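Support case: user asked for a sample of complex input and structure output to validate their parser. Sending the pair below.
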Amino acid sequence: MSALPLDEELAEFMNERDWDQFHSPENLAKSVVIEAGELLECFQWGAEADLDRVRSELADVLTYCRLLARKLDLDAEQIVREKLAVTRGKYPVEKARGRSTKYDQL
Amino acid sequence: MSALPLDEELAEFMNERDWDQFHSPENLAKSVVIEAGELLECFQWGAEADLDRVRSELADVLTYCRLLARKLDLDAEQIVREKLAVTRGKYPVEKARGRSTKYDQL
Amino acid sequence: MSALPLDEELAEFMNERDWDQFHSPENLAKSVVIEAGELLECFQWGAEADLDRVRSELADVLTYCRLLARKLDLDAEQIVREKLAVTRGKYPVEKARGRSTKYDQL
Amino acid sequence: MSALPLDEELAEFMNERDWDQFHSPENLAKSVVIEAGELLECFQWGAEADLDRVRSELADVLTYCRLLARKLDLDAEQIVREKLAVTRGKYPVEKARGRSTKYDQL
């Protein structure tokens, strides 16, 4: 496939279509949750889902996440790492092990 | 920060806490949309949002997306590229340029 | 409790706080999905949920739905009845009985 | 239209199709957020939306909310009134007037 880094390929795609005008952070945030709803629709009535559909919908969520990150000059990998460090603090291993309880009730 | 690739760092974090048991694809899909709602909450009453909050909520969405991708043996970058190829077909430049119209109404 | 019809009680509450200015249809639609995410959070890790939390979050979803309906001069009961008639047409009993399949795949 | 109360009409519709088996509280909560995403899609790229589409999607959200309420023996009107009383306490008029600030930051 393309030799371009993914973010550049996405940017090229959007520029060709002059779609940047629609991609305010607010509209991208709406788009993330709209696509996340479609992803969940794969699991609406149970745990089993069609893998091709999941792949396609998850791709849509990730696409809008990346567009939003880029729009705000955020590095997608870096913010995940930073948040993980915060979450480590909220969920120490000895307290959180084997429990799905929220941190404020641990 | 960590020298581990991000997916391995996430896996290590989950393993330490024995959280994999909660991370069925269905529960991860639910988590993606729950966090996407929190991301949108940054923009609930308007276009302006606190960047630190957006960064934190977007990180949560991305984290659950990556966990879901890994759980289903999908490569996050690759599925975005594949979907982009599909979208190219649905939105040819000459038709889609400068319009936010959905492909089935173009 | 109040002797006012519910929609009027909600309107009074919003007017006292001068909140109508924030309640564009778009912002209300965002609010519906934000609260729907919180409702789903009650079921994030499984089928069991705390009933008081569900009650509270479902109330929030319903509140924003009613505010949106009123803003657009829609009658909440009537649109549900109308949509049910449409759905009857898409899901005839003989085809849909006992199946969760979407109408376009029946 | 029907002379039945709406909840009974919905129950009859579901019974005819034997759909109650799919309507666990968890699945209904998923359905609420899925439909809420479709409602928001009407406003994905801006404040203007097609009223017929909004009417149809809002009806879907309300339908699943009602099914969930009924499943949990909750009265939709009553829980909205109860929550409104709670919200009154969190947002006193003198503090909240004309502001969209969340209660914990007022």
